[in-house]
Design a protein that fits this description.
single chain; 265 residues; alpha/beta; Stationary-phase Survival Protein Sure Homolog, Chain: A; 9-stranded mixed sheet; two-stranded antiparallel ribbon; 8 helices; 13 strands; 23% strand
């Protein structure tokens, strides 16, 4: 089995290093940003070059093929599947381990999750792994041992019981150890109140620094943050295709049809 490993924290982050060094019994290809590209969501590079270089002596695994690119996390998947290898060569794509949880609205901003979702566009099963911001290298090593088990189990399951469409499994590890187990967590309504701090450069020019404040997290069982707070590994299934309920489609279709006479005369 051949695995493509990507991230958004950069190829020299401790999260991806722990992940790569704990994935066993696989051929591994690593393509990651040269520098941190957190919160770039699903951005891709167009109308400018993507430079790359081969990275040696960073991962302990002998013979790891790894590249650092100047592009985004989504670019890492694109180049990993279509330049540094061929799409048919890669069996599964894994992204992370991210420095910080990806739950609630963070899923939309996350380069880690978006990279995993990019893989689904090429009909690849993918997993996004994320840990707590305060994690040290030893913590990532602990997570990575579980990530290896998840990756092999998911790859086997996907071959035997594939879902009806490509998907990403978004997995977050709690800060507490040992883990109590694994739970499905509904994506919560966590959001931020934008708050900008005005600062000055050494030459006196003004600039803004985002200091987003977390709004109150919904107090209800069954959400992703509840599972993490309880000490469980939390997983959520994400698909890249937006879904609307049939009755909502009917309502909006009826409303828009009433506008035809005034719009198209």
């Amino acid at each position: 089995m051949k695995v493509l490993i990507v991230n958004d924290d950069g190829i020299y982050s401790q999260g991806i290093r722990a992940l790569v060094e704990n994935i066993k019994d696989c051929e591994i290809l690593v393509v990651a940003p040269e520098h941190e590209r957190s919160a770039v969501s699903h951005a891709i590079t167009i109308k400018q070059p993507i430079f790359f270089k081969k990275v040696k002596d960073w991962f302990k695994n002998p013979g790891i093929e790894s590249y650092a690119i100047t592009g985004t996390p989504a670019d890492c998947v694109k180049t990993g599947l279509s330049y540094f290898s061929k799409p048919d060569d890669i069996d599964i794509v894994i992204s992370g381990i991210n420095h910080g949880h990806n739950i609630g609205v963070d899923i939309h901003y996350s380069g880690t999750v978006s990279a995993a979702l990019e893989a689904t566009f090429s009909n690849k099963c993918s997993i996004a792994f994320s840990g707590h911001y305060s994690s040290e290298y030893e913590d990532f090593m602990y997570m990575a041992k579980y990530a290896n088990k998840f990756m092999h189990a998911v790859a086997k399951w996907n071959k035997e019981s594939p879902l009806s469409q490509p998907y990403t499994i978004n997995i977050n590890f709690p800060i507490t150890k040992p883990y109590k187990g694994i739970k499905y967590g509904e994506v919560n309504k966590l959001n931020y109140r934008d708050c900008f701090e005005e600062r000055l450069t050494p030459t006196g020019s003004k600039y803004l620094w985002l200091q987003g404040e977390l709004n109150k997290v919904p107090d209800s069982d069954g959400f992703d943050h509840n599972a993490l707070d309880e000490g469980f590994i939390c997983f959520t299934l994400i698909t890249p295709y937006f879904h609307a309920e049939p009755h909502d489609i009917g309502k909006i279709s009826s409303f828009l049809s009433t506008l035809e006479d005034s719009f198209f005369q």
